[in-house]
Amino acid sequence: MNESRRLAGGRRGGGARLPRLVAGLIVSMGFALPGVAAADEPLWSDGTAGRHAAGDPLSFGAFADLSEAASPAVVNINAALGQRSVFGGSSGLSQGSGFLVTSRGHVVTNNHVIESSSEVQVRLGDGREFTARLLGADPQTDLALLQIDVDEPLPFLPLGDSSRVRVGDWVIAVGNPFGLEHTVTAGIVSAIGRRGIRPEGRDLLADFIQTDASINPGSSGGPLIDIHGNVVAVNTAINPRGNNVGFAIPINMVKALLPQLAAGEVSRSWLGVAVDRVTPQLARERGLERARGALITRVTEGGPAAAAGMQVGDIVLQFNGQPVRDNFELPWLAAVAGVGSMVLVEVSRGETQVALTVEMGAPLVASSAPASGRSFAGGFRGDSLTDVEEDKDGLPERGVLVRSVDESSVADRAGLRAGDVITECAGHPVMDAEGLHAALESSRSAGVVRMRVLRGRAVAMVTLRY
Predict the structure, then answer these.
(1) What letter would DSSP give residue 55?
(2) DSSP 321-357
(3) What are the residue boundaries of the structural domains of the chain, listed by start?
(4) Which of 28, 220, 269, 409 is catalytic?
(5) Strand boundaries in 213-263, DSSP class E
(6) What is the average pLDDT value for the chain, to the nearest integer?
(7) Is residue 46 flagged as an active site residue?
(8) Active-site residue flag, 383
(9) Which fold has domain 1-265?
(10) Among the four given CATH numbers 1.10.10.10, 2.30.42.10, 2.30.30.30, 3.40.50.80, the one describing domain 374-465
(11) Which of 99, 121, 287, 439 could pair covalently with 223 via S-S, beta carbons 3.0-4.6 A apart?
(12) Helix (H), strand (E) at residue 452
């Protein structure tokens, strides 16, 4: 491709060399030459490891070189929503971004960009357009993999190692905000390990990277690239109440799912527990050097954890050989372990540590009956007690009866159960579903909401951590 040859040869106008920090970048960006793509080429290429040295300032023009090298592999996505009519129109259009991860035309993007689409068009940086095939999508991580059919190898981006990303690292975001193609913004990594982020109210299995590189509508699905030219995350969401507060899915999560997305189906394993955070006080009581791990607040009867002997009150410290940092990490580790796999789990129980072997199961299949009750932020449904027609013997006159709790949701991790009656939220009495909805919406911006629930004859406190 002409663009690839020009980039590999340097800038127009002579032999100006690339800055030292991005030396060799063009080679690592995967600009394949015709005839070298193999049928068994992997689903991605790993970038070169590297870390910006302390006291080593960015070279002049580094961002320009990064942008010039990356842009040919970033694509514009237009998804026609709904059914197409006999006149060729559709009920709407979703616009977003994506990026090529192989020379064969595999494109990574966000699921919400192409969800419910009847047709997806991909436009390359050189203006060519292709109708894409959806290979696989995963709403729980908001990831999707597309395929465009091409006759020649395409430029693609190498994938980095998001576990090496540090707060303060320089990054650029490339995308098509508001339909403005190949817009580049620069910033730093503002935070890592952001959990409980709910883009447009969706509960996601994600451990977001936060950045102040500007991400806007239409940028979703585009790459977040480090100073070495490696994709370290997929731009996904913004905080509409803040300026330059964007969130991106770590690329290691993407790499874990790419083979399943390419196969057309993402399957998850299931542990069968609800978890909460380990407080510093609890860590001291258990003799832990610091607050870490995930506190088991519920064990599903008949589930894998119950069969292995896991108990309420256990603190999961290691799962499948990997330390568990907190209660947000365990659901992801359990989900990707694999159905039928035998996993060694180390837990703190009382003053001792116990090793358990768990055979991971498949998630319980939800009932095909329509979900009942009003949906609430946090991933649960419920009804005002005044609207409940079942026997209410022993229940208060006012409150909200929990009908169902979504698997791996904020509410599930907090230990909320179907059958609980919520009587208090954020310190205020809950009279009905409308009052609970208002209390949650006004309180969850703080990140933590405490609810008082009746569970049979017992009273429990449930803490939602958004």
Answers:
(1) T
(2) TEE--STTHHHHHHHTS-TT-EEEEEEEETTEEEEEE
(3) 1-265, 273-359, 374-465
(4) 220
(5) 223-226, 231-238, 246-250
(6) 81
(7) no
(8) no
(9) Thrombin, subunit H (2.40.10)
(10) 2.30.42.10
(11) 99
(12) strand 448-455
Say if 1-265 and 374-465 have the same CATH topology.
no
CATH 2.30.42.10 fits domain 273-359: yes
48: confidence class by pLDDT, cuts 50, 70, 90: low
State mean pLDDT over 150-177. 92
pTM of the model: 0.66
Residue 76 contacts by C-beta under 8 Å, 6 or more apart in sequence? 95, 97, 122, 123, 176, 179, 181
Structure tokens that stand for 24 in this block:
């060799």
Name the strand (E) or helix (H) holding 442.
helix 433-443
Catalytic residue among 138, 142, 383, 420: 142
Q: 6 pLDDT band (50/70/90 cuts)?
A: very low
Q: What is the predicted pLDDT for the residue at 390?
A: 66
pLDDT digits (tens, 9 = 90+) for 274-328: 888 899 999 998 899 999 999 998 888 889 999 999 999 999 999 999 999 888 8
Question: Which residue is catalytic, options 28, 65, 112, 408?
Answer: 112
Helix count and strand count (H, E) for the chain: 10, 26
Confidence of residue 378 (pLDDT cuts 50, 70, 90): confident
Q: Mean pLDDT check: name the lowest of 82-96, 107-121, 406-420, 439-453.
A: 82-96
Is 220 part of the annotated catalytic residue set? yes
